[in-house]
Amino acid sequence: MDNRRNYYRVLRVQPEAPSALIKRVYRVLMQQLKLHPDLGGDTGNAALINEAYRTITHPVSRAAHDLALAEQGLSAARIGSGPLDSYLRHAATARHNNINRRHYGRILSLQLDAESQLLAGAHAWVMSQTQSPTQQLLVDRAYKVLVDPDTRARYTELLTQHSHNGALAMLKREAEGAEESRSEQDTSHAPEAPACPFCAATPIPVVSAPEPLCGRCASPLRPPPEFSRPPGRRRRATRLRKGDTIAVSTGWPARQFAAVLLDASPVGVSFLSNAMLHHLPVVRLDGAGLSAVVALTHGITSRTGNRYGGHILTARFENTTGTFFQASA
Predict the structure, then answer these.
(1) Any residues with CB less than 8 A from the CB of 294 and at least 6 apart, and which?
(2) CA–CA separation, 5 vs 48, rounded Å?
(3) Is 78 helix (H, G, I), strand (E, B) or coil?
(4) pLDDT for 82-130, tens place per residue?
(5) Contact at 8 Å (CB) between 266 and 314?
(6) At the top level of CATH, which class does the domain 206-317 belong to?
(7) Residue 125 near residue 24, CB atoms below 8 Å
(8) Going by C-beta distance under 8 Å and a sequence separation of 6 or more, which residues neighbour residue 103?
(9) For the chain, where do the domains classified as CATH 2.40.10.220 start and end?
């Protein structure tokens, strides 16, 4: 441990971490990471963790610990706005003021060097306490950066020279530069085989049915037909409002939830569901006379549920005449 006098470091949490999360972290340390002596952990190390846990989970002892850290200039934790708090804030910021600046570790209430098991547990807990889709997206981004060891190491290194936003900008530029370098090295290679738009299988194992299907996930492979936009019309094809129940599949292996089809045409769909999507993925819709792979482009949360819409990448319609469009002239 970097500092045995700092119990937040011992528990791998941030000074502002709520007690409920600290209890979850403690269980992961003792059980999943097997730091408990009964599971093979070091007795002295376990005693230190227990001492830290007893101190930080008790309001009075935690306040005393925060005071000691602040007077040492180690933490600006839990400082208010009273006369004594002004003194504590001055003592806490006497050291380098970057110690408590914003970074992805603070979003998850963990130290930046916390083990991956702690990151997973903290991510799940914070997501369960967050109702705002914007905040949930931020929590997801923090987790994705920190859960990858190489990305986390580089991000932590960049934080010593840049702000949080500056570190993210540098990570993005470096990733783009690496991608461009790989693209230049691959120019002499043969082009990659197309992948299934839903499960990303490549090369695509094709099942010959009335319409070609992916042999791995049974998603349709034929793109929707092209439509010219009639004069005075904004859409390329007439939509039909449905109201039927459909199954929405996300990821592979697929996870499904139910939804109500609000609007459908050969080029786009929208549906309503109680399920919350933390980002806008490619999904597959089945039911109401169609099977389609859809790239979601927008989502709106309202009192009636979550409404999502997007454009169709590939589709198979049970009825290709009359309802949506005429297949032949």
Answers:
(1) 269, 282, 283, 284, 285, 310, 311, 312, 313
(2) 10
(3) coil
(4) 444 544 444 444 333 444 467 899 999 999 999 999 999 999 999 999 8
(5) no
(6) mainly beta
(7) yes
(8) 112, 159, 164, 167
(9) 206-317
